[in-house]
Amino acid sequence: MAQWPSTLKQYPLMRLLIAIVFLLGFAGCDKTNKPVPPVSQTGELIVLTRTSPTTYYEDAEGNPVGLEHDLVELFAKELGVKATFVVAQQFNQIIPDLLQNQAHLAAAGLTITTERSQKLLFSPFFQSVTQQLIYNTDYPKPRTIKDLIGKKIEVVAGSSYAERLKEVRTVAPTLTWAETKKMESEDLLEKLAQGGIDHVVADSNIVDVVKNFYPNIGVAFPLGTTDQLAWAFPKDAEPFLVIKAEAFFKRIRSDGTLKILLDRYYGHVKRLERADVSGILEKMRTDLPRFRAMFQRAQEISGIDWRLIAALGYQESHWDPLATSPTGVRGLMMLTDDTADRMGVNNRLDPNECIPGGARYLVNMKDMIPARIPEPDRTWLALAAYNVGYGHLEDARILAQRQKLNPDSWADLKKVLPLLSKSEYHSTLKHGYARGGEPVIFTENVHTYYDILVKFEKPYKPVFPTFEPSKLSKNGTQGTSLSRPPT
Q: How far is CA 17 from the centre of its chain?
């Protein structure tokens, strides 16, 4: 230590560099801690968030999506301002940054807790969840808190899970756990599935999504009662912003917008059983390599993400090129003889023909759907039509109108499709009876299989796409890729 002063005297350049480093450091701190200006002055809404399949993430096309992303965008549009998202590197920094006014609000999967409410203001809640103790089903299921003593438990640092475990420790004083700053709940659940830890505490909505990727994780028991997810504001937030948020959530709850968004991100996640998830994961290892290039070729032809085409093929045949049903549909994409003829497929049992044929047919269905219907509903309606026929889909849309539901919304259409099997309804429609429950199950399953494929398979970006517009649809238009909703 005594040598430093003499060393610096001998090297004036070193002294200068150290001084610059210190000055830059202080300047950086000032910039980081500077509060954001009011929304009313800038017209920009700064929002703290985090990367999560239940909050905010990039879809297959690189576009930001997620339940809270969509809610914020709607809110910003209502305010007439621009939303800018700041993605936190660590969950435990979100609340401290918000307390320092580094953003106008946080939309980051935050539950309302007593401790947080002492520091922050919260919007009306938009989703109810339950904290759950998760275990690896390859090992014995814990029954009580006492079964957790001595086990390796990990939770996200700064989360409400740590708060809940502190409450639990009042009845189990020797209970211990680790709080990690480097992982999100989804990462910890993956670590649990791989045997790296014994237990994780996570919210039920996160568990519902992640269970479709790792079939060997299960719910042991809930920790506490229902919690509520909401946006958080600093205590000194602009009053008009908090008032507008209250009005916003009241409106989207009453007009059905919130229900539609919840269905978009969670309506399909509980469709598959553990065996279904295990099945596609195994087939991805054993069978998919044989067909991957064919699915990618189908993307080049149709413009549809190859993973969606693969998900469709898996739902139809479990990637069995020789599959045949009692009704005469055949091949990996289970095409009827008539559909195969129209799509230019000579041999339905040849996957090189059948897979592109199925992709073309899906594009046909999308092109018949009114252009005003946006993604992802456009794709879900097209998948339902692929299964039940476009005529029956139109009948369901008419039925939705009669029941004062939205015929352009998949969330509403899947309510009325099963009614096509009831005489009091199908007798009043042009195309008559249909097993309307089947396209609902079909579409929701494809949605989940697609989520799984997106999780584990890379997107395909052809250098020289080959289009076959004459074979895609009656009007010669090319299909568009799916803008993916969450996993």
A: 48
Q: Are residues 298 and 405 in the same domain?
A: yes
> In the chain, helix, strand, coil percent, each to 5?
50, 15, 35
Instruction: Name the residue range of residue 13's domain.
Output: 3-33
Active site residue 438: no
Residue 478 lies in a domain: no
Specify burial of residue 71 (Cβ count, 10 A radius: 0-12, 13-18, 19+).
Answer: buried
Question: 33-47, pLDDT tens digit by residue?
Answer: 789 999 999 999 999
In CATH, what number is assigned to the domain containing residue 97? 3.40.190.10
Task: Tell me which of 316, 394, 424, 438 is the catalytic residue.
Answer: 316
Write the pLDDT tens digit of every residue in 306-326. Answer: 999 999 999 999 999 999 987
- Give me the number of domains the chain comprises: 4
Three-state secondary structure call for residue 22: helix
Closest CA to 391 of 341, 443, 343, 430: 430
**303 and 168 fall within a common domain:** no
Give residue-wise pLDDT tens across range 131-169. Answer: 999 999 999 999 999 999 999 999 999 999 999 999 999
